[in-house]
Write a structure and sequence with these properties.
The protein is mainly α and about 350 residues long. It has helices at about 1-5, 15-20, 30-45, 65-90, 90-100, 105-110, 125-135, 150-160, 185-200, 220, 240-260, 275-285, 290-305, 310-320, 335, 345, and strands spanning about 55-60, 115-120, 165-170, 205-210. Helix 4 (about 65-90) crosses helix 6.
Length: about 350
């Protein structure tokens, strides 16, 4: 073991950041969400001409929703897409392209595959910009050209011709509707959005992903009759027995991933010992994505300070620089000790003054 320790090269903060961006850590909520994704897609495969199903996955920022979608595409769909391409590659050029393509990073392959479309909405999305966001995700060379109806035609044409089997619409809280906009002109725009999604969900299963603010998006209620029950992605509260176990398990898996990604030669056991998991739970409001950010920042603090072992001080500083900076937690449990655990209702808020 000593030889391994001596041969280990300490990563730079930038390298640590890059490694964390590649991490995919299983947890029960993620696995349950993926099971729903598979179910909706299988319905599409089995009954492609029947009306399809929508589902919402809403939770606070940095809960791991987007990472779950990315993990599903990278883990399951990339290989399936490559296998399908292998069956249809007949010419030497096609086979050469496939051999070269298969060597690309999983993230690049996730963008190339045509089984699932992952669309991230931009801020203040309207009907016009919605079509552009879809065209960007589809790789259209001119996503902002043409009228709204021309862009919608190009979107639907690409979705059909390429054979997409499920659509993920991320950051859905950015969608503008009468519930969160004032001008009358927005009302017609929002109605068009509602009608568009009602039409699309008849043809493709759609997963709506966003923060709890997306609950205010009225179009969601318009397709309730075609919706699967919501995917549970609520924060893991330490006062709940299952939430505590799932959270502790995540911390343990994260400590192992840090070794797997060669950030440290040995797992940082501090992440699973004493009151550290509880402190992480409070500082993150039970959001696994925030836990990863805190630990990543702590490791960067460790490296920048010239240390080789993760300590409580590194974690405390990371909480100050991130969780407290964005007002996610009201106090630093690593500094004062876990004085109290906020209520589940507090955990559900993005920031302290959220309503």
């Amino acid at each position: 073991m000593e030889a391994v320790l001596l041969s280990h090269r300490m990563m730079s903060p930038d390298e640590i950041y890059a490694e964390f961006s590649e991490m995919r850590i299983k947890h029960p909520q993620q696995e349950a969400a993926v099971a729903v994704f598979k179910k909706l897609r299988q319905r599409m495969i089995t009954a492609p001409y029947a009306g399809q199903t929508a589902v919402k996955m809403f939770a606070g920022s940095q809960s791991g929703k987007t990472t779950t979608v990315e993990w599903y595409i990278e883990k399951f769909l990339v290989d399936e897409w490559l296998a399908a391409k292998a069956l249809t590659a007949k010419t030497a050029d096609e086979k050469a392209w496939l051999a070269k393509t298969a060597k690309l990073p999983r993230r690049e392959l996730a963008k190339l595959q045509t089984i699932a479309l992952h669309v991230e909405l931009t801020g203040g999305t309207t009907m016009s910009s919605l079509m552009s966001d879809f065209l960007v995700a589809l790789g259209d060379p001119e996503p902002y050209s043409g009228t709204y109806r021309q862009r919608r035609y190009r979107v639907e044409k690409a979705l059909s011709e390429r054979g997409y089997q499920i659509i993920f619409i991320d950051e859905i809280q950015h969608l503008k509707t009468p519930a969160n906009t004032g001008p009358v002109s927005r009302t017609d725009d929002a109605t068009e959005v509602q009608n568009t999604f009602k039409g699309w969900v008849k043809r493709w299963p759609i997963v709506f992903v966003g923060t709890q603010h997306a609950e205010k998006v009225v179009f969601e209620h318009q397709i309730a009759t075609r919706s699967h029950k919501p995917i549970d992605f609520r924060p893991l509260h330490y006062g709940d027995a299952k939430g505590r176990k799932d959270f502790d398990d995540f911390c343990g898996r994260l400590s192992l991933k840090i070794v797997e990604h060669r950030i440290l030669p040995e797992r940082p056991r501090i992440l699973v010992e004493g009151d550290v998991p509880l402190c992480l739970n409070i500082a993150s409001k039970g959001r696994l994505g925030v836990v990863a950010i805190i630990v990543r920042n702590a490791l960067e603090n460790m490296v920048e300070g010239g240390h080789s072992q993760l300590t409580r001080e590194h974690l405390a500083t990371a909480v100050e620089d991130y969780s407290q900076e964005i007002k996610l937690c009201s106090y630093n449990p690593f500094r004062t000790g876990p004085i109290f655990i906020p209520s589940p209702e507090e955990y559900a808020k993005d920031v302290a003054n959220d309503n």
